Amino acid sequence: MTPFGEKLRQLRRAKGVSQKEMAAALGVSAAYLSALEHGHRGAPSWPMVQKVIGYFNVIWDDASELEQLAWSSHPRVVLDTSGLSAGATALANRLAEDIRMLDGEGVDQVARALENARKRRS
Fold first, then answer.
1. Structural domain tally of the chain?
2. 10 Å Cβ neighbour count for 91?
3. For residue range 7-33, what is the model confidence (pLDDT) as tens digits?
4. Please, what's the b/e burial string for 57-68 (b: 16 or more CB within 10 A of its CB; e: otherwise)?
5. Please, which pLDDT band fits residue 82 given cuts at 50, 70 and 90?
6. Residues 67 and 91 in one domain
7. What is the pLDDT of residues 32-60, one digit of tens each?
8. Which value, to the nearest 10 degrees, does the dihedral of the CA atoms of residues 28, 34, 36, 39 take?
9. 76, part of any domain
């Protein structure tokens, strides 16, 4: 599942509509909407994100959050480590190989470590 897919499902369920109903309102197939929710499709297009924002009547900060989630929701990430250290390349490959073994807490720990590194760098 992607961050956008998870948020989309939360919004849809909170509104109490089925995938089929929402898909019809957005002019897409229920299969496409299901694939978005489950992370089987890439990040949605900007027009699709705008349709979702309009459908849920999302405003300001919430709309910005939804857009950010969409841009960070491509399920097949490519990392370019050219010009970085051998250790960075090894880490990128290790993460690609082992990310499926991480549970929620493991993912959170890695994310916190990266956030702490970003803060130290700033």
1. 2
2. 14
3. 999 999 999 999 999 999 999 999 999
4. ebeeeebeebbe
5. very high
6. no
7. 999 999 988 888 999 999 999 999 999 88
8. -160
9. no
Residue type for 122, please? Answer: S
Q: What is the domain extent for residue 65?
A: 3-71
8 and 53 together in one domain: yes
Are 66 and 100 found together in one domain? no
**Residue 97 and residue 40 share a domain:** no
Are residue 62 and residue 94 in the same domain, yes or no?
Answer: no
Does one domain contain both 65 and 109?
no
SS3 per residue for 5-48 = HHHHHHHHHHHCCCHHHHHHHHCCCHHHHHHHHHCCCCCCCHHH
**One-letter amino acid identity for 98?**
D
Whole-Å CA distances, 106 to 89, 97, 98, 111:
21, 15, 11, 9
Predicted structure pTM score = 0.69
